[in-house]
């Protein structure tokens, strides 16, 4: 009786337990499974995206614009040099200068492009995309995974490749160079571009010489510098940055004043008065100095003195003799002076007072401009010496 | 004899207790089931948003400066709605933008889609430029509230 009684007393507990288990299996377990499933789905998608991104980053395609040897048409050579399959889906043809499509509001090629397994090459004829176009063109190949591969830039004339390598000419003019100085124009490529030659060296053989250099250039940005004896020249707008084809000429004006020769100054170094004895010869020295005026714009070198143009005149009663020793080949800086000739004058005559004139003729002393090579000359100049001859 | 004394049937007692237990159990089951169902739906929605973002990818193929067109395409797995497009100087911070449906870009690389500079793509300042595009999976886009799931949008930024 008691056993029967105990069994009956646990019915509610059993029912409650069944309900708890039912809640657990019908609600909690499915919820956990759903959570696990959702997480798995997200992980799968995340992994899938990661694999896609890895494959996408591994894509490598070389695009080279070239000319078909047989048809002379412009072609694109696509080479898959990466480890994954690349499927080109579109090709854009671009006018580089205007950054616009050459085929209107549509890509150059968009259908029928074959996929490229690793190591495979293919050739696409793009003649119709650039038909009649003159300028610089570039092609962009879009892959199925969304990568963009750009070709080299090509210069086209009427849709055909231009034979010349450089479509533009950059001229650099150097004005008013200094004689004997070495000038070097250097062109540095900033980013994309191509230029030849990249440097040009010139030694000025005359003062104020001008030179213009032509560089073959492709479109791009360049920095142009002028060096004077390997030192950056102090000239306005040196190291200028330009964009070709927007700018195609540069002028470096060194701003030198044209050399003008000045007249050499003559200075006599002679005694004012000379005393002599009647009937006897008397000699005295006369120094002839030359000075380059300080207004001169350059030194003067290689002086040549013509002593035949130095004369002594006056007092016909006296016998006069002049012997000069020239000093040639010297160099004068502006404002500097030096002796050009040393003369010995010998006189003899009757008693009396006389006046002698020592004259140096025009062009007796000639020098050469150091930079300009221009001749520097003297004008005629005379000085007088009083002579008094006494009785014995 | 004792039962008779109390006047309560044992069977009735058991029946009442069992009924109470069942009612309480069903009530708890309902509560737990409701919570579990709501949680499951929220979880599925969030997972779907995460998956949709993982599937979203947009590229700018080419900016046609002369014609004023930005060509975009979708190499991802989810259709996209472009919400904003701005072209601004590279050296400056992006200008303020509003989100609205500009175009829908299908998940297929067989087509490319134009965004007009000026009307659909805001151009400010002077070059060199960068372009910034915000797009969201079309399954997450709410036409009445474009910014509803903006945290699940993708942003494309590249040099022009």
What does this structure look like?
The complex is a heterodimer of chains A (392) and B (160). Chain A has helices at 2-9, 11-58, and strands at 61-67, 74-80, 88-95, 100-101, 121-125, 135-143, 148-150, 154-157, 160-161, 168-177, 182-190, 195-196, 199-203, 209-217, 220-228, 231-232, 240-244, 249-253, 265-269, 273-277, 282-291, 300-305, 310-313, 319-326, 337-348, 352-360, 365-369, 375-377, 381-390. Chain A is elongated. Chain A has 3 domains: 61-161, Immunoglobulin-like, CATH 2.60.40; 168-253, Immunoglobulin-like; 265-390, Immunoglobulin-like, CATH 2.60.40. Chain A is mostly beta strands and 392 residues long. Chain B has 2 domains: 2-52; 57-159. The longest helix of chain B is centred in the first third of the chain and has 45 residues, at 10-54. The mean pLDDT of chain B is 89. Chain B is α+β, with helices and mostly antiparallel strands. Chain B is rod-shaped. In chain B, a hairpin with a 4-residue loop joins strand 1 and strand 2. At the A-B interface, helix 2, strand 3 and strand 4 of A face helix 2, strand 1 and strand 2 of B.
Spans of chain A of 5+ residues with little confidence (pLDDT < 50)? 1-6
Mean pLDDT of chain B: 89
- Total domain units of chain B: 2
Tally of DSSP β-strands of chain B: 8
Topology:
The complex is a heterodimer of chains A (392) and B (160).
Chain A: H1 2-9, H2 11-58, E1 61-67, E2 74-80, E3 88-95, E4 100-101, E5 121-125, E6 135-143, E7 148-150, E8 154-157, E9 160-161, E10 168-177, E11 182-190, E12 195-196, E13 199-203, E14 209-217, E15 220-228, E16 231-232, E17 240-244, E18 249-253, E19 265-269, E20 273-277, E21 282-291, E22 300-305, E23 310-313, E24 319-326, E25 337-348, E26 352-360, E27 365-369, E28 375-377, E29 381-390
Parallel strand pairs in A: 10-18, 20-29
Antiparallel strand pairs in A: 1-2, 2-5, 3-4, 3-6, 6-7, 6-8, 8-9, 10-14, 11-13, 11-15, 12-14, 15-16, 15-17, 19-21, 21-25, 22-27, 23-26, 24-25, 26-29, 27-28
Chain B: H1 2-6, H2 10-54, E1 59-64, E2 69-73, E3 80-89, E4 103-105, E5 113-116, E6 122-123, E7 129-137, E8 154-159
Parallel strand pairs in B: 3-6
Antiparallel strand pairs in B: 1-2, 2-5, 3-4, 3-7, 7-8
């Amino acid at each position: 009786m008691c056993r029967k009684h105990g069994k009956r007393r646990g019915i509610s507990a059993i029912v409650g337990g069944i309900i708890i288990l039912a809640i657990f299996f019908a609600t909690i377990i499915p919820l956990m499974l759903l959570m696990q499933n959702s997480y798995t789905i997200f992980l799968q998608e995340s992994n899938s995206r990661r694999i896609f991104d890895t494959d996408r980053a591994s894509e490598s395609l070389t695009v080279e614009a070239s000319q078909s040897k047989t048809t002379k048409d412009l072609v694109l050579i696509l080479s898959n040099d990466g480890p994954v399959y690349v499927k080109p889906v579109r090709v854009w043809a671009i006018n580089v200068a205007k950054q616009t499509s050459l085929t209107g509001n549509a890509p150059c090629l968009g259908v029928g492009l074959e996929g490229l397994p690793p190591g495979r090459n293919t050739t696409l004829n793009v003649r119709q995309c650039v038909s009649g176009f003159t300028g610089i063109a570039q092609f962009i190949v879009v892959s199925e995974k969304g990568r963009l591969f750009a070709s080299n830039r090509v210069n086209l004339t009427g849709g055909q490749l231009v034979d010349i390598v450089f479509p533009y000419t950059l001229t650099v003019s150097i004005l008013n160079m200094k004689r004997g100085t070495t000038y070097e124009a250097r062109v540095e490529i900033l980013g994309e571009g191509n230029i030849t030659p990249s440097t040009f060296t010139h030694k000025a053989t005359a003062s104020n010489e001008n030179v213009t250099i032509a560089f073959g250039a492709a479109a791009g940005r360049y920095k142009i510098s002028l060096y004077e004896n390997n030192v950056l020249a102090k000239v306005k707008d040196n190291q200028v940055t330009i964009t070709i084809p927007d700018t195609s000429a540069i002028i470096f004006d060194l701003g030198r004043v044209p050399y003008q020769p000045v007249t050499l100054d003559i200075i006599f170094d002679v005694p004012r008065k000379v005393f002599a004895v009647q009937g006897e010869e008397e000699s005295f020295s006369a120094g002839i100095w030359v000075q380059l005026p300080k207004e001169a714009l350059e030194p003067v070198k290689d002086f040549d003195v013509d002593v035949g143009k130095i004369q002594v005149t006056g007092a016909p009663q006296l016998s006069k003799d002049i012997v000069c020793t020239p000093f040639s080949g010297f160099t004068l800086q502006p404002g500097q002076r030096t002796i050009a000739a040393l003369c010995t004058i010998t006189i003899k005559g009757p008693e009396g007072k006389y006046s002698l004139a020592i004259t140096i003729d025009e062009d007796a002393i000639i020098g050469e401009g150091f930079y300009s090579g221009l001749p520097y000359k003297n004008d005629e100049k005379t000085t007088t010496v009083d002579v008094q001859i006494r009785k014995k | 004899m004792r039962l008779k004394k109390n006047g309560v049937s044992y069977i009735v007692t058991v029946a009442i207790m069992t009924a109470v237990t069942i009612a309480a159990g069903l009530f708890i089951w309902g509560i737990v089931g409701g919570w579990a169902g709501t949680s499951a739906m929220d979880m599925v929605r969030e997972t779907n948003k995460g998956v949709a973002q993982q599937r979203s990818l947009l590229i700018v193929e080419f900016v046609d400066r002369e014609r004023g067109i930005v060509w975009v395409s979708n190499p991802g797995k989810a259709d996209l709605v472009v919400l904003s497009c701005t072209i601004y100087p590279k050296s400056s911070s992006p200008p303020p933008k509003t989100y609205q449906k500009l175009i829908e870009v299908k998940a297929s690389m067989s087509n490319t889609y134009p965004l007009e500079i000026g009307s659909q793509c805001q151009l400010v300042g002077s070059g060199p430029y960068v372009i910034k595009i915000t797009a969201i999976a079309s399954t997450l886009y709410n036409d009445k509230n474009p910014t509803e799931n903006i945290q699940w949008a993708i942003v494309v930024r590249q040099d022009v």
